[in-house]
Write a structure and sequence with these properties.
This protein is α/β, with parallel strands linked by helices. The chain has 7 helices and 7 strands. The protein has a single domain, classed as Rossmann fold (3-Layer(aba) Sandwich), CATH 3.40.50. The protein is about 45% helix and about 15% strand. The mean pLDDT is about 90.
Length: about 260
């Protein structure tokens, strides 16, 4: 994966904690802010893939001292607290949190077991809430502090996605909107990106293409005006902008990037 393309967003030396950044959208966001001169905390559950991402990004930016990797399960409060303390201890502070957590894997249909609702709300809502709550004390007093949630178009549109996943992402998007009003007086901005269908190797759309290519291609042709997948790098460009002072008046907003798929906004 190529490194991010610099946009002169004045993120130099700011610390960006990117949860879920060993691959896909989170990986691209980390590269994008690195290209802007930021210092980045990478996280992921799998230590091996996280180490690989670390090495690749160090080669991209040419300065491994601007990257700090922490592996762990970030659905656990203790892991989050420990990770933030490690990151702040390493870099001396934290300016931005990018909460890129969740999974859309689930069962179709309206009959869903309670355990499935709990599982998908834990992964797609509560984990990000815990991140935000733990991050706020570290963000207070920083000149350009922000929290960015990565949600999904399922939060704002009826789709074939699993009901618990859609409801959890909708809850996250609403939470971000309300949180922004509570944190604005403290100088912390809060925004949300709702990506559409984003393709990357090893991701869910990669698997869907392998299993039912004709159906996926038909969906893109009929449901997405641009008739293509989005890329992690396209989401990352918007994410880097929203973290920057260039977006200083942007808070409480939901940004949809889906090739025109949604009709509701």
């Amino acid at each position: 994966m190529d490194g991010g393309v610099a946009m002169n967003l004045k993120l130099k030396d700011q610390v960006v904690f990117v949860a879920g950044s060993s691959r896909g959208i989170g990986r691209a966001i980390a590269s994008a802010v690195l290209a802007e001169g930021a210092r980045v905390v990478l996280t992921g559950r799998d230590a091996e893939s996280l180490a690989q991402a670390h090495e690749e990004m160090a080669a991209e930016c040419g300065d491994r001292t601007r990257i700090f990797a922490i592996s762990g399960n970030f659905s656990i409060p203790e892991t989050i607290e420990d990770a933030f303390n490690l990151a702040v201890g390493h870099f001396g502070g934290m300016d931005h949190l990018v909460a890129n957590l969740g999974t859309g894997s689930g069962k179709p249909g309206w009959q869903q077991e309670e355990s499935e609702w709990i599982r998908l709300f834990e992964a797609n809502f509560f984990s990000s809430v815990r991140l935000a709550q733990a991050a706020v004390p570290h963000l207070r007093g920083r000149a350009f502090a922000s929290i960015l949630f990565i949600s999904s178009i399922v939060a704002i549109e009826a789709t074939p996605a699993p009901l618990p996943y859609s409801a959890a992402k909708a809850a996250l998007t609403n939470y971000a909107k309300n949180l922004s009003r509570l944190l604005a007086p403290e100088g912390i901005r809060v925004n949300t990106i709702c990506p559409g269908n984003i393709y990357f190797a090893g991701g869910s759309w990669d698997r869907h293409l392998q299993n039912r290519r004709e159906a996926v291609e038909a969906m893109l042709k009929t449901e997405v005006p641009q008739e293509r997948f989005g890329t992690p790098e396209e989401i990352a460009s918007l994410a880097a902008y929203l973290c920057s002072a260039a977006a200083g008046f942007a808070t409480g907003s939901t940004y949809v990037m889906d090739g025109g798929q949604t009709r509701s906004l």
